[in-house]
């Protein structure tokens, strides 16, 4: 029988979760509605609705250029993360070597430590070598957490492949390169798609590292949104909200597509296993 204390605790937990979710949904709804509203003062809804704030935000904040830079950076980060992360994940999944647990812990550190913790010294190094303020500086900074993220995500997919498949390919004369390209990669397509899509979401939404290393011509959408809110001058709140809605949609779409290919419990299970 469930005790009164347990029932009270469960009720409090559910009340807190519901309160949190309602507040988050209310904030999102407020931003979305305001981005379409003409004037919103003391009423429950704006006096009228319009799309002109999206056109205004697109022109005022040069969203076309910002989105182009955002997806150029995200695309480069995703490509490099896949090229580095998939072979590294294969090595960790298939090979046992001294210090392997330590290597896995090192891969986990950029995911567990707040980005601002290592972002400041990383930005300092990038400024010294002349990469900070450029698109390549932003790409390098975002690779620091994204490559380990790709590795940790790909390991469970590789472990699901029977090693006998690889052994059979080697019996028929396949070298390491052909084995990887013609046998493993086709089997890993769902995992690679999930890793790349989630890496793109992570890069598009990464504020700290991009903010510390970006220049005027290498700002992603999230950094441009920050500057639009806090930069000097007067701007219509509806235009800023319209920009925020575009940012939310750009990340939400990729996230939904990525979750089509991966179960988040795979990542949690792998992190717990590695920690043990």
Automatic annotation (TrEMBL):
Gene Ontology CC terms: plasma membrane
What sections of the protein cross the membrane?
Answer: 12-36, 66-90, 102-123, 135-158, 179-201, 244-262
What PROSITE patterns does this protein map onto?
A: ABC_TM1
Q: How would you describe this protein's topology in the membrane? A: Multi-pass membrane protein
> Could you state one GO biological process linked to this protein?
transmembrane transport
Where is it located?
Cell inner membrane; Cell membrane
| Ranges where the ABC transmembrane type-1 domain occurs | 67-258
Has UniProt tagged this entry with the keyword Transmembrane helix?
A: yes
* Keyword match Cell membrane: yes
Major localisation: membrane
- The domain of life is Bacteria
Q: Which protein family is it in?
A: Belongs to the binding-protein-dependent transport system permease family.
Q: What name has this protein been given in UniProt?
A: Putative spermidine/putrescine transport system permease protein
User: Whose protein is this, by species?
Assistant: Ancylobacter aquaticus
């Amino acid at each position: 029988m469930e005790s009164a204390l347990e029932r009270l605790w469960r009720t409090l937990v559910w009340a807190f979760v519901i309160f949190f979710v309602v507040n988050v949904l209310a904030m999102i709804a407020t931003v979305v509605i305001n981005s379409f509203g003409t004037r919103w003062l003391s009423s429950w809804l704006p006096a009228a609705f319009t799309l002109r704030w999206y056109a205004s935000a697109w022109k005022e904040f040069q969203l076309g250029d910002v989105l182009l830079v955002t997806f150029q950076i995200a695309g480069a980060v995703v490509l490099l993360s896949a090229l580095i992360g998939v072979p590294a994940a294969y090595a960790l999944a298939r090979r046992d070597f001294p210090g392997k647990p330590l290597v896995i812990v090192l891969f986990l550190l950029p995911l567990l430590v707040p980005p601002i913790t290592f972002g400041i010294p990383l930005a300092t190094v990038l400024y010294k070598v002349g990469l900070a303020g450029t698109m390549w500086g932003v790409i390098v900074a975002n690779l620091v957490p994204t490559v380990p993220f790709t590795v940790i995500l790909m390991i469970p997919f590789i472990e699901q492949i029977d090693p006998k498949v690889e052994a059979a390919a080697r019996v028929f004369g396949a070298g390491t390169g052909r084995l990887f390209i013609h046998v493993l990669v086709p089997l890993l397509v769902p995992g690679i798609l999930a890793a790349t899509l989630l890496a793109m979401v992570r890069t598009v939404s990464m504020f700290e590292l991009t903010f510390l290393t970006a220049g005027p011509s290498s700002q992603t959408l999230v950094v441009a949104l920050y500057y639009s809110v806090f930069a000097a001058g007067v701007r219509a709140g509806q235009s800023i909200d319209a920009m925020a809605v575009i940012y939310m949609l750009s990340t939400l779409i990729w996230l939904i597509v990525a979750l089509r290919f991966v179960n988040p419990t795979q990542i949690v299970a792998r992190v717990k296993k590695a920690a043990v």
